[in-house]
């Protein structure tokens, strides 16, 4: 939490450094690099008593937590996030608090502004990111004639052969945002659609969502995870990669 908040202090003192965005990007890239391996640390860890707290500390967990706070900041919106954060600091000043206390305060603010839509629970969303290693590879397969896209997820490994050895089928609650040349706004970040995790045993079907009425024209490229909203990588169908490559060439 301190690592996440530190960027705002530096930005307030030296806005010309553009430290806030650079710091966020550095943390994001470091998490994608480290957390792509098989044996990675969880963000959260249980300890028997306070004497074991320091032994449970890990740097990548701290960095990933900061990236996840940034994700919540973006999906909740500036006003809602800052209101909830100020409320948390006031309510728990000079007191101890758990992560559940923080999620509950965020949930109260989310319920008030309705930005995340009905049925989205902060505790459930964060549990999947904090309680399992790694992060997802989100695959976007477009139907250019119908302006739809099938979006699926699986755990990303930097070494592909590890994927076949991984027995479990983890999933994450992933906020979906995209941009394209024909989008009415520079980016579409309503977060009305998420890749979700069921409460029962995950299945391949539960890790897939169909996006309809995309604003992208058949000749447009489309780019997901605008401004690195959440820590995941994106893969596209061949045609979309070709459109992106043509634009960047």
From TrEMBL:
Residues 1-129 form the Peptidase M1 membrane alanine aminopeptidase domain. GO terms for biological process: proteolysis. Keywords: Cell membrane, Glycoprotein, GPI-anchor, Hydrolase, Lipoprotein, Membrane, Metal-binding, Metalloprotease, Protease, Signal, Zinc. One of its GO terms (cellular component) is plasma membrane. It is a lipid-anchor; GPI-anchor. Pfam families: Peptidase_M1. One of its GO terms (molecular function) is zinc ion binding. It is found in: Cell membrane. Its cofactor is Zn(2+). It comes from the Eukaryota. Belongs to the peptidase M1 family. This is CG2111. It comes from Drosophila melanogaster (Fruit fly).
